[in-house]
């Protein structure tokens, strides 16, 4: 049901959990494009198979496949990362979210890295939230933060943002408003 709700929010051009004064940070434009291409392939396949095979129940499976692909893409769009007044909310669609208090962030910088393995994992005290095996923003924390799914204590976080400079600027501005020093952009 969450997928259908995300699809509805996407069609209504709404975002979940982004309040007034919050900054939404997109992270999955490339995956959305790929999902839309896949949705097109599902439609072409449905038409081709529909001309060859006259089984009505097969069209139900095609519709379910199409809705599943579009729902996955919608989940990434309607659940962006959010810079709030006291915390940074990092997400992986509607499946994962971690709240990082702004006062726990000691530094933030734009830093592109390539990763292997799962898109969401904890490795040696670092939470990695990659999209397309890439991250572009790196946070250092002043105290350990417990995360679930993947479980672990982290003191560093690397995540993907479509515009890393904007992400670093927004996080730095929020930290300044919250009483912390501003951040620097490093490439």
Automatic annotation (TrEMBL):
Q: Which residues cross the membrane?
A: 36-57, 63-83
State the UniProt keywords alphabetically: Membrane, Transmembrane, Transmembrane helix
Protein name as it appears in the record: Integral membrane protein
Species of origin reads Saccharothrix xinjiangensis
Q: What taxonomic ancestry is recorded?
A: Bacteria, Bacillati, Actinomycetota, Actinomycetes, Pseudonocardiales
